[in-house]
Design brief:
Blueprint (H helix, E strand, L loop, with lengths): L2 H39 L1 H4 L3 H15 L7 H9 L9 H14 L7 H14 L9 H18 L2 H11 L1 E2 L7 H17 L17 H35 L3 H18 L10 H7 L2 E2 L2 E2 L5 H15 L6 H19 L3 H17 L3 H11 L4 H13 L11 E2 L3
Parallel strand pairs: 1-4
Antiparallel strand pairs: 2-3
Helix pairs in contact: 1-5, 1-6, 1-7, 1-9, 3-5, 3-11, 4-7, 5-6, 6-7, 7-8, 7-9, 8-9, 8-16, 10-13, 10-14, 10-15, 10-17, 11-13, 12-14, 13-14, 14-15, 15-16, 15-17, 16-17
Subcellular location: Membrane
GO molecular function: chloride transmembrane transporter activity
InterPro entries: Cl-channel_core, ClC, ClC-type_chloride_channel
Amino acid sequence: MNKLRLYLFYTIDALLIGSIVGIIDTIFGRLLLEIGELRSDYLLFLLPFLAPCGLFITYLNRSYGGKSQKGMELLFEVGEGKEKDIPKRLIPLTILSTWMTHLFGGSAGREGVAVQLGGTVAHALRRDSLGPHASRIYLVTGMAAGFGGLFQTPLAAIFFAMEVLVVGRLEWRALYPATIAAFVASWTSHTLGLEKFTQVISDKLSLSPQVLLQLLLLGVIFGLTGKLFAYLLGKFKQTFAHAFVNPYVRIGVVGLGLSVLLYIFGTGRYTGLGTNLISYSFAGADGKSLITGADWILKLLFTVTTIAAGYKGGEVTPLFSIGASLGVWLAPFFGLPIYLVAALGYAAVFAGATSTTIGPILIGCEVFGFQYWPAFLLVCLVATRLFPALSIYGGQKVSKK
């Protein structure tokens, strides 16, 4: 097949993938935000039902999910060629399960759903006749569309999708279709009214030798925090599976405990995505921070527990909130601007937990401003280099080259 025809197919399919995924992202994302508001308004009535909700989620996925229960793990297996197909029912099951998790107070994210649904749509539309790498290229294209449509950060989406499958190796073959799909999905969701988080900060940063050392140290702290999240997620999954072999008992018991603890600690402060903590990190009352020193670790523990128990969602938005709130707490110790350190934490904890580098750097730039790219570059590079094999994605591989 000549290259002109090849790129024609990739162009048409990427436009289609971006449009479809952008529409699904919008429906999923807008309703998820409304669910979050409903939960906040009726927390006392909804939080006690987190355990029964978990039982229903488990029943739904075990009865009808098949191999789609693997979630992100399945996408990694398809990327490696270990699995050939992604069941289309993954989309409604994952979306519904995530909506329910959030409605009843689980601490979880949303990007996992977006990336999975993007990968599912693209894989369904793939053209295997385009070559031996077509399946992987379409998968990366769909993942970029899913991430880009939900967060409306297309540059970060492109590179996150290209680098997440194998640490240290970019899937350059997917660059062209992934770029089209990410921008189309982002434009589609924006046009249809899905909110995008951006934060304008005006802090000045002079890269003196002292500041460079401070940024490197912040990179270590943020990176270790991301790794702590990844380590505890794997450890909690093993512990829960060993303690409660029956998945219904597991999610029921843990869900009941979460209901009680989520109310005791902060009266719902640590439920949902964590966007409240992100907002608090960049807003002050009478010059005082709305973030406490315990916010980052409590959000980390509640999110790890929620996902490890079997509830659905993702980890990235909670990681953003953990990083931002940790940054607010750390800034005074370093004598650096609070909002800037919060922004660096937002990106670098994500980098550490996912063992990706370019995507987190770009999401920091797209959300907070490209004028801070040297700072994002430094902290994310350091954060990613710490224990690269330790990641929230169990199916992720590390390049040996």
